[in-house]
Structure formats: structure tokens, C-alpha cells
Design a protein that fits this description.
By secondary structure, the protein is of the alpha+beta class. The protein has helices at residues 3-8, 13-31, 77-86, 142-151; strands at 61-65, 70-74, 96-100, 109-111, 116-118, 130-132. It has 2 domains: 1-31, no CATH class; 61-151, no CATH class. The longest helix is centred in the first third of the chain and has 19 residues, at 13-31.
């Protein structure tokens, strides 16, 4: 079979289906994100707090909040929480916080306030917390993890 016949199929059906398939595949990726989140462009987007490139899909986080409901991206949940505490808009309770499920490689996102966290990981900025969807031995909830992050010397 010639390449042209393969690409075009009979008539132009083969060519017409290719863009449609690409469009549908792109839509499927976007729908996997929780409402209000935006896709992180791995190895290009930078952390709002430390400006490091967001590369490690196991530890990324996003916050939507502030007076204008803006979106902020982070390389580590520790950066996200330290940055949030420093904001003058005082809307911490209203801010929406998402964190990557560390077991899903950046393909599944969790509401950070509902997630469980395990300490002792080599996270990008050294806060050490990895998020999980389910509780496991040694995991802690959001509030306890937040307290431990705030206790770290480099969260000021």
C-alpha cells in the first residue's frame, strides 16, 4: 500500500478522521483535570514561589484563589503552602488547592485538603511530603502536614 493511500484511505476519510481523533484525544486529557485547574506544562512552567521549573510529576501542586481567582503553580506542596500563608488576601480557607497523587505520575489530581500525606520523600524543595488518595500506615491529613511544613526553617 502506498503512503498516500494509507493516509487518505478511500476518498478523504482517512485524512478527515486524523484531526478528529486528535481533537477528541486532547479533550480527554483536559477533562481529567478537576474543575478550575489548568494543565501544567512539565519542564516549562515554573513554581510561583521558588521559580524552579516544575518537572517532578509526583509533587506538583496548584492553588486557585485571591481576589481575582487566579491560578498559581508549584513544584512542591511545601512551596504552595508557604506561599499561601504569605498572601495578604487572607482567603486561605476559600483557596482551592490541588496536589498530584504521587502514585499516578502527574495524571491524577487530589483535593489537597482531602488527601493523605507521607513524609520522608525527596521532594523538589525538600519539604518531603508526597500525596496519596488513600490513607496508609504513617500517613497524615492535610492539617497535620501543613503544620509540619510551617515548622520547617525554610518556610518564611
Amino acid at each position: 500500500m502506498k503512503r498516500r493511500e494509507f493516509l487518505l484511505g478511500s476518498g478523504c476519510a482517512g485524512l478527515a478522521l486524523s484531526p478528529l481523533a486528535l481533537a477528541l484525544a486532547a479533550c480527554g486529557r483536559e477533562s481529567a483535570l478537576p474543575d478550575g485547574m489548568a494543565e501544567i506544562k512539565w519542564d516549562r512552567d515554573t513554581c510561583t514561589r521558588c521559580t524552579m521549573v516544575i518537572s517532578d510529576r509526583r509533587f506538583a501542586a496548584e492553588i486557585r484563589g485571591g481576589p481575582k481567582g487566579e491560578l498559581f503553580k508549584f513544584d512542591d506542596i511545601g512551596c504552595a503552602l508557604c506561599w499561601l500563608k504569605a498572601q495578604k488576601w487572607g482567603g486561605e480557607a476559600a483557596a482551592r488547592i490541588w496536589v498530584a497523587d504521587s502514585t499516578a505520575g502527574g495524571t491524577r489530581w487530589l483535593d489537597a485538603r482531602q488527601a493523605q500525606f507521607v513524609d520522608g520523600h525527596a521532594s523538589p524543595m525538600g519539604y518531603g511530603f508526597a500525596a496519596l488518595a488513600q490513607s496508609q500506615s504513617g500517613s497524615v491529613g492535610f492539617d497535620e502536614m501543613d503544620g509540619k511544613v510551617m515548622a520547617k526553617e525554610f518556610c518564611s
